[in-house]
Design goal:
1 helix, 3-stranded antiparallel β-sheet, 10 strands, 2 domains, Rieske Iron-sulfur Protein, 4-stranded antiparallel β-sheet, alpha+beta, single chain, 127 residues
């Protein structure tokens, strides 16, 4: 009887360690910490510019900056020039050119990011 109990305890302990270790290791490997600065020069900017998981839209003289992460599960969205929308390749969420959610599993709009315009450059700092 002791053997079954110790096996159960071992398996339970192993599952517990994995459940705690996987998120911790993932955080350390994929979240380097600190702020990250992304700069878009005037030459790099089009109507819709993409760099380092950030979209910069320059429409009718108004600049808007969005995270390229889908608000459903975080996949990187693509900009479809023909349809003029952002599309998630993973689960099919779609966003209008202004970042508003128009269909798919995502119910939230794309996240807007703060930016500074300095000397013709768009500077975005992300956490």
């Amino acid at each position: 009887m002791k053997r079954k109990t110790s096996r159960r305890n071992f398996i339970f302990s192993l599952i517990t360690v994995c459940a705690l270790a996987v998120p911790a290791v993932s955080f350390i490997l994929f979240n380097p910490g600190g702020k990250r600065r992304v700069i878009f020069t005037k030459a790099e900017r089009d109507e819709v510019a993409y760099k380092d998981e950030i979209f910069v839209l320059s429409l009718k003289g108004k600049i808007t900056v969005f995270s390229a992460h889908c608000t459903h599960l975080g996949c990187i969205v693509n900009f479809n020039k023909e349809k003029n929308i952002f599309e998630c390749p993973c689960h099919g969420s779609k966003y209008a050119i202004d970042g508003k959610s128009i269909c798919g599993p995502s119910k939230r709009d794309l996240n807007k990011l703060p930016f500074v315009k300095k000397n013709g450059k768009i500077i975005v700092e992300t956490a």
